[in-house]
Amino acid sequence: MAVPTGAGVGGEASAAYQTEGGWRQGGKGASIWDTFAHRPSAPAGGDVASDSYNNLFRDAEGLRRLGVSHYRFSLSWARLLPNGTAPVNPAGLAHYSRLLGHLRELGIEPVVTLYHWDLPQGLQDAFGGWASPVLPQLFRDYAELCFRHFGGQVRYWLTIDNPYVVAWHGYGTGQLPPGVRGGPRLGYRAAHHLLQAHAKVWHLYNDHFRLTQRGKVSISLSSHWIKPQRMTEKNIKECQKSLDFVLGWFAKPVFIDGDYPESMRSNLSSLLPEFSEVEKKYVKGTADFFALSFGATLSFQLLDSYMKFQQLESISLRQLLYWISSEYNNPEIFIVENSWFVSGSTKRDDAKYIYYLKKFIMETLKAIRYDGVNVFGYTVWSLLDGFEWHRGYSIRRGLFYVDFQSHDKKLMPKSSVLFYQKLIEKNGFPPLPENQPIEGTFSCGFAWGIVDNYIQVSLMIKPTCCPASSVHHIDKFAG
């Protein structure tokens, strides 16, 4: 089954802090992740990571080899504005200009994330980060710099990656940087400011850059999928509530009516900030497509158990896509992050990763062909192994293997590279003769056995469909 016209597989992704390294190079300022990773008891962070800052040609060659149509990456706010505000760092501008130049030479569409969790430490120190109402305007100023310098080469912009994690675990639980344990109230306040920041940037682009740059802007939202423990009306409503509290928290204001889901407003009372009528109109409609992230780390491992409402998680991407289509008026959906993970000790044989990748891509195709979901693009996470946030280097999610102990950090293709390469080449799963389903039975007397690695096995098989005297002896020894 091939992907329909208008929908494309063939994207790759990475994030600045996870892969760039070079944390003290080129005038870059400190980010909240730098500070968090440099605590005395903290494990290794992203100081070097995959060293993409010093290996732009290496990464571009990996993209060329895969044959991808687009590449999603994030800009480091602290590399462009070391203190979070002016003055601008010329070396940072030059670095991303070179990257965009390589992509243009290869004919690869850039998909650029403005903020992927690495807030400049200066803004956290001066204002309290996203807990402050000052941040939305500062984020708008940063976005304007990016639109002016890079907008001519970028058609797809993502303002913020996974605001759920930024707000809830950055300012509520303190599990992730900046590590503020402010409880639910501060988590909801930070989320409120993230939504305001996103809306400001969308309006900025819409009012001043869209006409000349002809791009699109959205916000990358992550979600899990959940199913009821038992098929009762109460459990089904709890599943809806779970999706409201994670995905709907941000999606409903942006895609429906500028306000939070009713289940949140009725359950959280004074904890949840309120939008004025003017603010609702300002936030509503501030996305040109639905950017979805779905994967192990963001969708499940960082999902607060409280937000499951005692229901069961599921990894059904197809059902989530159908729910988004139904809940948010059939938007155009761009899957901007998807994959699973393998152990950090895995080198180049990543069969488990391929299994999940194939599963998710086939579910996407079924959602398009059978359910009428409007998906127009798919992006694998990630191009190369890197620093995996709270999991550090204990897991790997890249198509290319990186030996983090080596000096040159060469990219070595895993088995998944060939799989994804062929998938892109064929644009899906075309109906090849060897893939056609078959029905039928084997011949009477066909031998069925099992082998043990060390013990000689003697099997006596008496097929029920044959005369009793027809007995087959099979002796095998596996060394």
From TrEMBL:
SUPFAM superfamilies: (Trans)glycosidases. It comes from Amazona collaria (yellow-billed parrot). Transmembrane segments: none annotated. This is Klotho. GO terms for molecular function: fibroblast growth factor binding; fibroblast growth factor receptor binding; hydrolase activity, hydrolyzing O-glycosyl compounds. It comes from the Eukaryota. It holds the Pfam family Glyco_hydro_1. One of its GO terms (biological process) is fibroblast growth factor receptor signaling pathway. The lineage of its organism: Eukaryota, Metazoa, Chordata, Craniata, Vertebrata. Belongs to the glycosyl hydrolase 1 family. PANTHER family: GLYCOSYL HYDROLASE, KLOTHO.
